Amino acid sequence: MESVPAREARLSPLLRAAARQGRLDDPRPLAVAAQIGVALQAALQIALGVASWTGSGLVRPLTLVTLPVFLGAAVLFLCWVQCCRVNAETFAPGTHKYGVGQAVWVWLIPVIMWWRPYRVVQDIRRATDWPGGAQLVNAWWLAWIGKQFAFGVYVLLDPLGNPNALPFSLANGLAAVLAVLVIQRLTTAQRTRLTAR
User: Fold this and answer.
1) Helices (H) and strands (E) in the chain — how many of each?
2) What's the CA gap between 50 and 166, in Å, rounded?
3) What is the pLDDT of residues 187-197, one digit of tens each?
4) How far apart are CA 185 and CA 135, in angstroms?
């Protein structure tokens, strides 16, 4: 494991000072954990959709496992967002619309969760100097919102329908793939910034 002085030696002077004050952290460990959680949750959701579609006896066991995995993935993802948001404040102080604490809470507040998390991630992307990343963030957000909206309409139109229908499971898989890519690219951009000389 790399020592703190060796790690700090690779940072620019501004970032070195922030690292000493405990305001910077490598987002990679949380990114890897979040990516694994998101991918596992999506795989389980797709398996649940297939089991539901085929009438398999695996529906009940998969249902029991999917919710805890989803909650774990959500917690890991929000921890990663928080870490990246703290770093972004050091990269571009005072340029963010929402505070460090709001980076997590905006995901949990009904109605606000439809647009503010997107703004938080875009602010982090801009502060990190991730060139060309807006399109990937936009695609991920549209997939996530589209999936939520379509599911809501489906439940309203057919309250007794199958909430684990295969189309929703596949839409969840697409949103998960895009989320994993956003996590990877933003983490790479932050690590590049952290090690800039």
Assistant:
1) 8, 0
2) 6
3) 999 998 887 64
4) 12
Q: At residue 11, does pLDDT exceed 80?
A: no
Angle 59-91/116-128 helices, nearest 10 degrees? 50
Q: Rounded to two decimals, what is the model's pTM?
A: 0.84
Query: Residues with Cβ < 8 Å from 94, sequence gap 6 or more?
Result: none
Q: How far apart are CA 75 and CA 112, in angstroms?
A: 18
> What residue type is 102 in one-letter code?
Q
Q: What is the pLDDT of residues 142-169, one digit of tens each?
A: 999 988 888 878 777 777 777 777 888 8
**Length of the chain as a residue count:** 197
Q: Are 191 and 24 in contact (CB under 8 A)?
A: no
Residue 111 identity (one-letter amino acid): V
- Number of C-beta neighbours around residue 83 at 10 A: 22
